[in-house]
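Consortium newsletter contribution from the modelling node. Members have asked for a concrete example of what our holo predictions look like. Here is one, prepared for the 2'-deoxyguanosine-5'-triphosphate complex that several groups have been discussing at recent meetings.
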Amino acid sequence: MPALVPPPALLQNNESPLLLASGSHSRRRMLENAGLVFESLTPGVDEDSIKHQARKAGCNAATTALKLAEAKALAVAGGDAVVIGADQMLSCQDRWYDKPTSLEDARAQLRTLRGQTHCLHTAVVLARHGQVVWRHVEEPRLSMRAFSDTFLTRYLQAEGARCLSSVGAYRLEGPGLLLFWHIEGDSFTIQGLPMLALMAALRQMNVLLD
Ligand SMILES: Nc1nc2c(ncn2[C@H]2C[C@H](O)[C@@H](COP(=O)(O)OP(=O)(O)OP(=O)(O)O)O2)c(=O)[nH]1
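And here is the predicted structure:
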């Protein structure tokens, strides 16, 4: 039975096309699962340079994530569309982490994060006609178990490259859940988008029906 995707007219106004300025499968999946109809584009933004400048200017991780989300939303030519830009930074003990580039990188990162609490500074913005019209940040806190090296080896064998698409080297909706003993915050936000706040903003902008 194919997944039932409600026709756009039932859930949103066709006059305001929606564009996701992100290459994130996780973000796309969450919007699709909510029944939204949208286009997606991967923004060409030099994230490392923006992060470096922000850090040098003394910005915290939440402000930096907002700057990145805005840069992504403004980097795509949206025309009349409402454009969603988002970014997620991971910080632990004031150190910032990026998406691991290899399983060895993921192993090293998880060994550093285990037994500690880290924060996922998750920013989302809406832009229209080249202007950012809405900004939002949520900062869930996730406490990792002090898991064994044997567990970590088995986890990486089970997850493989799937864990490289996430800033924390885990998929909360997958075996990543086994890494944690406590989580404060919204699971959608952890997966990359504060969906409830975003849906409320899209209703405010008359993109989604109230
Ligand atoms: N499936 C899944 N993805 C997660 C989870 N936690 C974080 N992520 C993903 C969401 C984002 O795709 C990624 C955070 O990195 P970024 O915000 O830089 O986005 P990304 O580079 O993926 O795409 P973008 O820069 O927006 O084109 O981590 C999780 O628990 N599950």
